[in-house]
Amino acid sequence: MEIMTIQISSPMLYDRLHTLSVEYNLSADLLISLAVKRLLDDVEIIRDLRNGKIKLE
Fold it and tell me: Is 53 in contact with 42 (CB distance < 8 Å)?
């Protein structure tokens, strides 16, 4: 496992992340990891659609 450091340059994004972290009693690291995973999953879905692959679940 590799550890990465993420610098948030948008004050609005930082505030929203901090608010959600406190509201749901979750670490900001976990929220960031979940957001990145969701983004990568969404990109994979778009790639599959572009390549004509359709997943029926």
Answer: no
